[in-house]
Amino acid sequence: NYWFSVNLKRYREERGLSQRQLAKMINTSQPIISAWENNMKYPLIDKAYDVAKALDISISQLLDCPEEATY
């Protein structure tokens, strides 16, 4: 999901977290976070929920197209 990658990076950076910090919060590795942000891999749904919880957002905010997106 393209929007997962975009939103993950956006919300992570907005919260001032490095990829390594987020990875530690959800018990994964920094290369996995990088692969997700670069649209190379996708998490299993339980890990996506862990990401949303760590970033204090809903799963919809993580997966959906942002309202302000331009096409």
What this model shows, in words?
- With 71 residues, the protein is mainly alpha-helical.
- It has five helices and no strands.
- It has helices at 2-14, 19-25, 30-37, 45-55, 59-63.
- Helix 2 packs across helix 3 (30-37).
- The protein is globular, with a radius of gyration of 11 Å.
- It starts with a helix and ends in an 8-residue tail after the last helix.
Gyration radius, to the nearest Å? 11 Å
Regions with little confidence, pLDDT below 50 for 5+ residues: none
* Shape category: globular
Roughly what percent helix? 55-70%
Which structural class is indicated by helix and strand composition? mainly alpha
Largest sheet: none
Rounded mean pLDDT is 93
Helix and strand pattern: HHHHH
Strand residue content: under 5%
Number of helices: 5
- Tell how many strands the DSSP assignment holds: 0
Rounded to the nearest angstrom, the distance between the terminal CA atoms is: 16 Å
Short description:
The chain is an all-alpha fold and 71 residues long. It has helices at 2-14, 19-25, 30-37, 45-55, 59-63.
